[in-house]
């Protein structure tokens, strides 16, 4: 099965998609990860992407779509993908529809995590990522402590784009661009909306219930 997981930045898509990957043997396509990897290479494209991300603006569809097709065309991932935060607008929806058809696959579920703006901003500006073990924490909701984080505090880092101005811009962009995407999948009877403000385990339990039903 292929799953699309949609939600505003900071809604918890990474955590839930990682859970799905483990339990259902899926391969995660995270446009954010793909873009950050390109930025890390410090290529010409990576420098351009970094500038765009720091402004809280979405990267062009052409860049994203090419990255997505590279993975969709890989037979190792046939019908076992989870799209984390993609597609973000109607143009990307149309492109994904054409790629799904081109490579003889299908979308099984579209899961939408609903979280209000104030919570999203706290999740983003409070986010801390351990550069050593990869675990993610939050100053407001999930503080790193000895019992849940064995690495030294010096490894906790913040992303350069995790600030309040960028968070507000990204949320407004999400509302403007992504809600029509939800309407599209709702019309296809593929959309399932989930309260994303609860505990991580409660949210994932609901996701599993939807899939198994």
Commentary on this structure:
The protein has helices at residues 13-24, 31-40, 44-54, 61-72, 90-102, 117-125, 164-187, 200-212; strands at residues 3-6, 27-30, 81-84, 109-114, 127-130, 136-138, 156-157, 191-195. With 213 residues, the protein is of the alpha/beta class. The strands form two sheets. It has a five-stranded parallel β-sheet with strand order 2-3-1-4-8, sandwiched between helices.
Given as residue ranges, the uncertain stretches (5+ residues, pLDDT < 50) are none
CATH superfamily of the largest domain: P-loop containing nucleotide triphosphate hydrolases
Task: Could you tell me the CATH topology label of the largest domain.
Answer: Rossmann fold
Silhouette: globular
| Helix-and-strand structural type | alpha/beta
Order of helices and strands: EHEHHHEHEHEEEHEH
Q: Largest beta sheet: what is the strand line-up? A: 2-3-1-4-8
Rg, Å, rounded: 17 Å
- Please estimate the helix content: 40-55%
CATH architecture label name of the largest domain:
3-Layer(aba) Sandwich
What is the total domain count?
A: 2
The overall pLDDT, averaged over residues, is: 91
**Tally of helical runs:** 8
Question: Main attributes?
Answer:
alpha/beta, 15% strand, five-stranded parallel sheet, Rossmann fold, 2 domains, 213 residues, single chain, 49% helix, 8 helices
């Amino acid at each position: 099965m292929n799953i699309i997981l949609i939600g505003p930045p900071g809604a918890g898509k990474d955590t839930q998609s990682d859970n799905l990957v483990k339990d259902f043997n899926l391969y995660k396509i995270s446009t954010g990860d793909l873009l950050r990897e390109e930025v890390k290479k410090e290529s010409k494209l990576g420098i351009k992407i970094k500038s765009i991300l720091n402004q809280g603006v979405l990267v062009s569809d052409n860049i994203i779509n090419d990255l997505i097709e590279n993975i969709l065309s890989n037979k190792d991932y046939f019908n076992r993908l989870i799209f984390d935060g993609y597609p973000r607008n109607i143009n990307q929806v149309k492109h994904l529809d054409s790629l799904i058809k081109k490579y003889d696959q299908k979308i099984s579920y579209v899961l939408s995590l609903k979280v209000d703006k104030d919570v999203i901003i706290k999740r983003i500006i409070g986010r801390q990522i351990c550069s050593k073990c990869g675990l993610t924490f939050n100053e407001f909701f999930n503080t790193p402590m000895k019992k849940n984080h064995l690495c030294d505090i010096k490894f906790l880092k913040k992303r350069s784009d995790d600030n309040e101005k960028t968070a507000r811009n990204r949320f407004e962009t999400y509302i403007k661009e992504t809600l029509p995407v939800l309407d599209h999948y709702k019309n296809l009877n593929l959309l399932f909306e989930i309260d994303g403000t609860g505990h991580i385990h409660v949210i994932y339990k609901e996701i599993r219930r939807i899939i198994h039903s």
